[in-house]
Write a sequence for this structure.
């Protein structure tokens, strides 16, 4: 129903679509209306010369001159009003004011110049055709103005011009033909305009749908990428994503001859937390530890969940002393966490194993292995500490804390 056209006026049957069409051509209608009315005013001014030739300086001439002056002023006023008006959308009847007034002015000449009916008839035919050709947007108004002019001329020619009935009938047939031709042409123009609007609307709609589909796919790809790279529980990078980021950071650090260290972090007594408080509480602990990691590590460090209760961090530019300071700060931060009920009585601690990549090592695997070994050495030594195997197994930290509750 949206793009169905009226068989009579070639307007869209759907009022919303017709209004959208009129809005799309509003600037052109404003400009065309202005130009048409200016030309009409100029034409009426020029016809004053023929009025003088037919009537001389007679009272009829001055009366006709006043009528033409009124029409000229009206056309000029309407020209400037319609040039910036949205009449096509809100007051379409304004577009019919000028044609009706022009028709009225033309009919007045029958009374004042009845002896020039032949010339006037030619002008009427031209005006009728002009109505249809220059304003095919709203056919009902143009049909009304043209019929008003044609019927008025025939009636005036018969009454004031005393034309014989046969001549009036011949004029009527010619005016009917002029109206039919003008209507068919105007209707065709109106249909073509709306078909073009329909094609452009469909193109815009297809483009919009395509853009929406592209945006939907991009959003889906982003979501899938995030899901592929992110640990769902903690929001940190998952193991695969962490290793990719760590390898990239390691390559950059090596090219700049900077140190590179790794931290392996394990939540102490996590099985006891799960068994004592339940897996939901265990998940809450992992999220708190992950948030602490994000707050503690530096911008540019890569942090991820390695699996279970184990986390890992890559520290580009950090030697063992720097890594130990950062790890100790993380250990203290987590030991100072205050959890909400029902975990308010739980003290969470972590054990952290450190390793620095050696100058001759070309991958992260050996350092990860050493950091993991340091981590398990720390867990065997009492937990809640920071150790590095590179320093001979020494470490810092407090005695392991057991969960209570």
């Amino acid at each position: 129903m949206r793009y169905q056209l009226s068989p009579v006026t070639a307007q869209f049957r759907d009022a919303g679509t017709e209004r959208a069409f009129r809005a799309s051509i509003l600037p052109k209608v404003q400009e065309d209306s202005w130009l048409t009315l200016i030309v009409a005013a100029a034409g009426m001014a020029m016809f004053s010369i023929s009025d003088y030739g037919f009537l001389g300086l007679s009272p009829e001439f001055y009366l006709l001159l006043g009528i033409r002056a009124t029409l000229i002023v009206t056309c000029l006023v309407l020209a400037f009003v319609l040039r910036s008006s949205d009449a096509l959308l809100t007051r379409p009847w304004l577009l019919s004011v000028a044609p009706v007034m022009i028709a009225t002015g033309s009919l007045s000449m029958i009374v004042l110049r009845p002896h020039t009916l032949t010339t006037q008839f030619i002008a009427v035919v031209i005006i009728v055709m002009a109505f249809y050709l220059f304003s095919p947007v709203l056919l009902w108004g143009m049909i009304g103005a043209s019929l008003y002019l044609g019927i008025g001329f025939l009636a005036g020619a018969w009454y004031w011009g005393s034309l014989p009935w046969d001549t009036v009938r011949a004029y009527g047939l010619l005016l009917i033909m002029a109206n039919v031709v003008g209507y068919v042409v105007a209707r065709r123009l109106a249909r073509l305009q709306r078909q073009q609007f329909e094609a452009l609307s469909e193109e815009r709609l297809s483009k919009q749908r395509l853009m929406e589909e592209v945006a939907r796919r991009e959003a889906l790809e982003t979501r899938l990428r995030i899901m592929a790279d992110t640990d769902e529980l903690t929001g940190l990078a998952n193991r695969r994503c962490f290793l990719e980021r760590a390898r990239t950071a390691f390559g950059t650090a090596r090219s700049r001859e900077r140190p590179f260290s790794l931290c392996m972090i394990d939540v102490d007594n996590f099985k006891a937390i799960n068994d004592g408080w339940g897996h939901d509480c265990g998940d809450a602990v992992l999220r708190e530890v992950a948030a602490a990691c994000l707050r503690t590590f530096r911008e540019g460090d890569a942090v991820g969940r390695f699996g279970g209760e184990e986390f890992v961090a890559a520290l580009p530019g950090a030697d063992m002393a720097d890594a130990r300071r950062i790890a100790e700060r993380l250990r203290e931060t987590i030991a100072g966490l205050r959890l909400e009920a029902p975990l308010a009585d739980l003290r969470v601690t972590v054990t952290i194993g450190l390793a620095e990549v050696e100058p001759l090592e070309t991958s992260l695997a050996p350092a990860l292995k050493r950091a993991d070994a340091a981590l398990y050495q720390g867990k065997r030594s009492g937990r809640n500490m920071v150790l590095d195997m590179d320093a001979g197994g020494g470490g810092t930290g407090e005695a392991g804390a057991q969960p209570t509750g």
